[in-house]
Predict the 3D structure of the following.
Amino acid sequence: MCSGGSLNPTAPTVTANGSTVTASGWQLETAVASGTYSNLTVPYTVAFADNGKRIRYYATNTCGTTNSNVVILTVNPLPSTPSVGTITNITCSLPTGSMALLNLPSGAWTINQSGTSSNTISGSGTTYTVTGLAVGNYSFTVTDNTTGCTSFATSSQLISDQSSTVWNGSSWSNGTPDATKNIIIASSSGTPFAANLTGCSLIINNGVTATVPLGVTLTITNAVTTDGQLIFENNASLVQTTNATNTGAIEYRRISSPMKNFDYTYWSSPVSGQTAKNLSPNTLADKYFRFSGSANDWVFDDDVMTPGVGFIIRVPKPGSPAPDNWSGSTYSQPVAFKGTPNNGDYSFTAGANELNLIGNPYPSAIRADDFITANTSIIYGALYFWTHNTAIAPSGSDYVYTADDYATYNITGGTAGGPLPIPVSGPAPSPGLNTSVPNGFIAAGQSFFVENAAPGSFQFTNAMRVAGNNSQFFKQANTKKTATVEKNRVWLNLTNSGGAFKQLLVGYITGATNDWDNLYDGPTFDGQEFVDFYSVNQGKNLTIQGRALPFEDTDVVPLGYRSTIAGPFDISIDNRDGSLAGQEIWLEDKKSNTLHELTKGKYTFTAINGVENDRFVLKYTGKTLGTDDNEVADKSLIVSVKNKKITLTSSAEAITQVQLFDLLGRKVYDKSKINAQEWSISNLPLSEQTLIVKTTLANGAVSNKKIIY
């Protein structure tokens, strides 16, 4: 029997021999093996203490008392009541709940579930998690299959629905949204999206209007369902992390950079179904275009804006009907994209060696570096962003747009497209001048030019999307420098007093080589009338040039320019970072036989009306080394490795600096101000690999040697 069970044996038949039976019944031993019995009232609830006691039946008449044979009671203990451990409620990603049961019998058992639904589960082990539980209350017992005894029941436990939180106009029904909860907006009142929110899915109920304010990001794992109205203000963002299918339309608002009459904005739709005509209905009917890479020309198109395809749309004329009834010198045009928010993967197919106008297809910013690296096999050079800084100049019946108004970006960095703010002659800069360098994020609604080196498809994926960083086209922001990428860069400007401007970038960066690199080098987007400025490498004119690490101050970079303006120009440093922030930077003018330190000020020269690609050289030292100095340094320096100890010995000049780089160009060791003939490096936390040892001697000579560490 089981402890707590009912003992109610059937009385045996007693045959009286003589007088009538006057008393009979069951008797239970008072203690195990005591031989003493007491009368037992049945039914009797047995306890574990009764285990091993004997039970008998007696009968009495005038002749005396007789007893039956005895039966020994076996009483098994009840299993312990299971302990309820972790309760997992229903969430958006978990359609059913679960409860963990602890303290189960060590052998085989059967769990008995009761409450909202009943179930039996067989198994073994001291813990078990009951799954598949719907919303409701549950209790459990456990039966030890060896003894057949069943425990007492647990207390009733609740499985609740935590899958959603509903905005009722003033508060959330189930706490602030997070990645485990569906967001349901059931009221137009209040401000449910006052700050960045994360949710499992988003539902806007029928008849409800909700607005995501400027700069706020909604990060949603799954689908967005809009039965009401969902508005994203300028610079707000919607980021989705899975390729869920959205339902219903949103309104995604953007405000263009300040434009002058006749200017164009480069757009890309973040929603499906939007037409170019409806985006800017007051634009002249023939001023909607996309770009044909195969024809290398603009194609009129005012129809549906295919995701990933770039469009240009001219600003409405001053005095246009509302909302474009503007006056004055510039106009920042408000537009509203209306349609189902784009989500998932998109592609743009291009032929060989074509220039393509493509765009961010999402209602959030994307990381430019991620786009570039994902399209390594097809991309050529850089991304080019239209800044519309220069006033449009009439040319007969047409208008001239300055090609140098394209800002440029690749993994090495970016260059500005803005001219100087105070013109004297030449093209005048627009008010609202955009002189910012692209910061590595492509804003929602933004399109850009990119050239492909081979036929294929440019790919856009959700993995490129980021929260925030979505302010209107190139607004400067602090960018995060990853620990695995070293960048040492200098930006140079070519300018004149009339407002001509061109910027170039030279950077020493992890992954780049001194040959052509499609991820790190960007050809000049040359096409403007007045001026171009670039570095020259392997016959290519480069707005951006990435060069190999380790940086050596003996490196030289040829520079060139083209100008239609003969007269004085200035070359100056705009910015520098990394190791170049403290490096001397020089400009050699071979024509005038001048060596000028740019870190001390600008260099003024007289430009010709034409091209000079062999006149200027960017240098990093004003000292002219003997032609054999570096060769002598190599011969006089011995580098040895033994037991993880690197020893450098110079028989000539003293060692002043030692740097170690891996084969990816990452600096793993740097020691300066050594001033000794011998130097040792021990116990670097590196696995066995090839290292480049860059050693600088007191006379400025540099030696590079490879070792196996």
The CA atoms of residues 96 and 132 lie 5 Å apart.
